[in-house]
Write a structure and sequence with these properties.
CATH class of the largest domain: Alpha Beta
CATH superfamily of the largest domain: Glycosidases
Largest sheet: 8 strands, parallel
CATH topology of the largest domain: TIM Barrel
Mean pLDDT: 94
Helix content: 25-40%
Structural class: alpha/beta
Strand content: 15-25%
Distance between the termini: 57 Å
CATH architecture of the largest domain: Alpha-Beta Barrel
Number of helices: 12
Radius of gyration: 21 Å
Low-confidence stretches: 1-16
Number of strands: 20
Shape: globular
């Protein structure tokens, strides 16, 4: 398999996110998402709903003298795994089931597709980055083939969504991208924004918010959006490993703007190194082997990691695991309906953004939850105000930033949020 990685250039449709309000108005009936059963749900939010967290290019078994166990992904808080396509699919699915993980199989056979319940499948994944990998004149035929295969899979498994994974909505492929985004039962795309060659904003959360907003607004509001988040480096193409702070900001920007699934690309192994990519892992090694097959057929040697590479790959794996566990604790809050009648938020325009801090407001069991992310390149002072203007108790629910706990006599508070900064607040009656 060629490990295709989409290049982020100037996404068209800038207005969609630049004109977005501070307090998000989308998904007032709840954020559509995929339950552990594989069913697409929106409202009411069923018990056990959660943000799905998928590890891309997971491996199970022994390859080139090295053992790979899916339990490491489970222990890191992932809810599901995407199998590298070069391994036996049924063996992988059995290993995932044994490890307690759901799966997102790529190009399933009919025999596999008929056993979605047995294998705990969340969704069936078909085309990969078609607008980047194939010419414009090939797109209509590719979409017809996708529809035909989707129809076949739906006959075998009417429940589970079928989707294509897109690259970012680049200007040069935007018409084709828009068509593809509407094809599946969920819309999924990647947008790898931590890149030294980007001439635009250095805040990767801003790029994520933009592309997720574009995807969300292209499809019916009952269709889930998944976002593939960068957790890799490929220096010859400008990509560097995001910091833990950047990873969390990108993930929260995706969730605040309407995503309900986060796919982390990718687990470090001989697969990623074959494409010159350093992924993340709890136990990476410098060299996965000198006589490995050239899986992507580019004629280049596998990447060999430095000691610094290995330390950074482990550190980001640990940070992602910690954030996954935070999302477990947060439970279904990001999926709840967005409310515009509870909290107002305002901040001065910066970095070309009318509303640099984006806010999602949720309510559950009488408590108000406020999720906020700063998309600008500057520190921003934000004023929040409860529209009821009654005394409230405020407490921070974001373990990666400053903690505050205070009584609000008039329901108002102010915070200064750093670039890529995230805040999560919980408000209760005083």
């Amino acid at each position: 398999m060629v490990l295709a990685i989409g290049w982020l250039g100037g996404c068209s449709g800038i207005g969609e996110v630049y004109r977005a309000p501070a307090v998000q108005t989308h998904h007032s009936q709840g954020v559509p998402h995929i339950a552990d059963t594989g069913q697409v749900v929106q409202s009411p939010i069923p018990e056990g709903s959660r943000v799905q967290r998928v590890l891309y290019h997971a491996l199970a078994g022994r390859f080139h003298g090295r053992d790979y166990r899916l339990e490491s992904a489970r222990d890191a808080g992932f809810t599901a795994v995407h199998p590298w396509e070069g391994q036996d699919q049924e063996a992988f699915l059995n290993a995932a089931r044994k490890a307690g993980l759901a799966t997102v199989p790529h190009y399933p056979s009919d025999a596999i597709a008929a056993r979605g319940d047995e294998f705990g499948v969340l969704a069936w994944y078909l085309d990969e980055e078609p607008t980047l990998r194939f010419a414009r004149d090939a797109q209509p035929a590719l979409r017809r083939a996708f529809r035909e295969r989707r129809t076949e899979l739906k006959a075998l498994d009417p429940l589970r969504p079928v989707f294509a994974l897109l690259g970012p909505p680049l200007s040069r492929v935007r018409p084709q991208w828009d068509h593809w985004a509407a094809e599946g039962d969920l819309t999924a795309h990647d947008n790898y924004a931590v890149n030294e060659q980007l001439a635009q904003s250095t805040n990767p959360a801003r790029h994520v918010a933009r592309s997720v907003s574009i995807a969300r607004d292209l499809v019916p509001q009952d269709r889930p959006v998944w976002f593939v988040i960068q957790a890799f480096a490929s220096e010859d193409r400008g990509w560097t490993l995001p910091s833990a702070h950047e990873y969390r900001a990108m993930a929260m920007a995706a969730l605040i703007h309407g995503a309900s699934g986060i796919v982390t690309f990718a687990q470090d192994s001989f697969v990623t190194r074959d494409d010159g990519v350093l992924g993340i892992s709890p136990s990476p090694i410098a060299d996965y082997g000198k006589d490995l097959p050239d899986y992507n057929g580019d004629g280049k040697a596998h990447r060999i990691a430095t000691e610094d590479d290995l330390r950074e790959a482990v550190a980001l794996w640990e940070a992602v695991a910690d954030f996954n566990h935070y999302l477990t604790w947060l439970d279904a809050i990001p999926l709840l309906p967005n409310r515009t009648d509870l909290i107002a938020a305002s901040a001065p325009p910066t970095s070309g953004l009318d509303h640099p801090v984006r806010v999602a407001v949720k309510q559950k069991d009488g408590m108000i939850h406020v999720l906020a992310v700063n998309l600008s390149d500057q520190e921003v002072e934000v004023d929040f105000k409860a529209l009821a203007s009654v005394p409230m108790a405020l407490e921070s629910d974001w373990p990666y930033g400053p903690y505050r706990r205070e009584r609000l006599s008039d329901g108002a508070w102010r915070d200064t949020i750093e670039p890529t900064g995230v805040r999560v607040y919980r408000l209760t009656d005083d």
